[in-house]
Design a protein that fits this description.
The complex is a heterodimer. By secondary structure, chain A is mainly alpha-helical. Chain A contains 11 helices and 7 strands. Chain A folds into 2 domains: about 130 residues, Orthogonal Bundle (Cytochrome Bc1 Complex, Chain D, domain 2); about 80 residues, Cytochrome Bc1 Complex, Chain D, domain 2, CATH 1.10.760. Chain B is elongated, with a radius of gyration of 16 Å. The chains are: A mainly alpha, B mainly beta.
Chain lengths: ~270, ~120
């Protein structure tokens, strides 16, 4: 018999960083060299324990597949006052192949840059005329996971649009900006300190190639915005609200930063 | 909305040992954790899992007991959305009946047909 071990013990320790951890962090930050190799990019997958990697690689074990299954059922289910399913307009879900690697993208309907979950919500509200789902709703995550899964192994490929370029620029500024009482930027951790230990966790390079993910610590599937808000809380910064344009800007920059890397959604992360 | 993901080969040769995999959505709340408001979160665990095999070419009814293939007891140390895998020697066609029972009246029953040639 095989089961996954519990992460309950770790659940309570999540949140802010301890003083000891912080001192260690600043020492290694000071000692780190700022070497930038040509393509030394690595997925968060490469920083995980073999057992967690095995869970991601086997769809019969990956708990995110429960959400995918739900999303696949929703895809064919008529909803809203238009009584239409996603499939009525888009055909089989397999036709979504190639869509997820392009997000965030400029939406001419919404006249702004949106992420995949905001595009799904747009269709739910405007096309199906159904009641919107709140952020992190199980059904929304399920549809997003099912759509993203269709693009597995395809390279991240942000489209070209002047307004997307603007969003990426704003995202770059946010990524380099020091935040929170701990006064660290995303870049400090995910470029300079990547590969080093923080408490019990290895700091990954922060490439968002597997979203939405099943996170063992959450015991659930969650969005990239949930992940980013977690990083902000960890450095004692006030996280942006779900759906905030700043979070979409960061997502847009992360997609540019990970361009060419293969999509691995729905990934499993510690 | 309990959801399951069960993986069983559709067909097997008589005498073949097959692998059965079963994933179920469940929070597996230990009863030892507090909410962000400091209140104890009530225990909410799956307690037992059983898999029976009912021989016969048609789908088994809820009343048929069949032969016990595998059973497990769950405790607080098992992670949310527990995954099980176990083996079974297939000798005849029939139905695998899997049942999860737990706290708060949790009861989930799934059946899978197996064709043995």
């Amino acid at each position: 018999m095989a089961t996954r071990a519990s992460h309950n013990a770790r659940r309570s320790t999540y949140g802010c960083l301890s003083v000891r951890t912080l001192i260690a962090l600043f020492v290694s930050l000071a000692l780190s060299s700022l070497a930038h190799a040509a393509d030394s990019r690595k997925s968060g997958f490469d920083f995980m324990q073999p057992s967690t990697q095995a869970t991601q690689l086997d769809d019969t074990q990956n708990p995110a597949m429960l959400w995918v299954k739900d999303g696949q059922l929703l895809w064919n289910k008529p909803d809203g006052s238009a009584a239409k399913s996603c499939a009525n307009c888009h055909g089989e879900i397999a036709r979504m192949r190639g869509v997820a690697p392009r997000y965030p993208a400029y939406s001419s309907a919404q006249k702004k840059v949106v992420n995949l979950s905001q595009q799904i919500s747009q269709c739910r509200i405007e096309q199906q005329r159904a009641t919107p789902w709140p952020f992190e709703h199980e059904s929304l995550l399920g549809l997003e996971a099912a759509i993203a899964k269709e693009s597995r192994a395809l390279p991240v490929k942000p489209p070209e649009h002047p307004l997307l370029v603007e969003a990426q620029k704003r995202g770059t500024t946010l990524f380099n900006q020091r935040i929170g009482q701990v006064d660290l930027s995303c870049r400090d951790c995910h470029d300079t300190l990547a590969g080093k230990k923080l408490g019990g966790n290895v700091i990954p390079q922060g490439h968002a190639t597997g979203y939405p993910i099943y996170r063992l610590e959450w015991q659930s599937v969650g969005s990239l915005q949930r992940r980013l808000r977690g990083c902000m809380t960890a450095v004692r910064a006030e996280p942006y609200a779900f759906g905030a344009s700043e979070l979409v800007d960061l997502e847009a920059y992360l997609a540019k930063r990970a361009a060419g890397m293969p999509l691995e959604a729905p990934a499993v992360r510690p | 909305m309990a959801r399951t993901l069960i993986t069983v080969p559709e067909t097997a040769k008589a005498g073949e040992i097959i692998e059965i995999k079963a994933l179920v959505q469940h929070p597996m709340e230990t009863g030892y954790r507090r909410s962000s408001d400091g209140d104890m979160l009530p225990r909410d665990l799956i307690r037992t899992f059983t898999c029976h095999f009912v021989v016969g070419p048609t789908a088994a009814s809820a009343a048929e007991a069949g032969e016990l293939v595998f059973a497990a007891t769950f405790h607080a140390a098992v992670a949310a959305n527990p995954y099980l895998s176990f083996n079974f020697r297939a000798t005849a066609s029939g139905t695998l009946v899997m049942v999860w029972n737990g706290d708060k009246g949790f009861a989930q029953r799934e059946t899978v047909n197996l064709r043995v040639s």
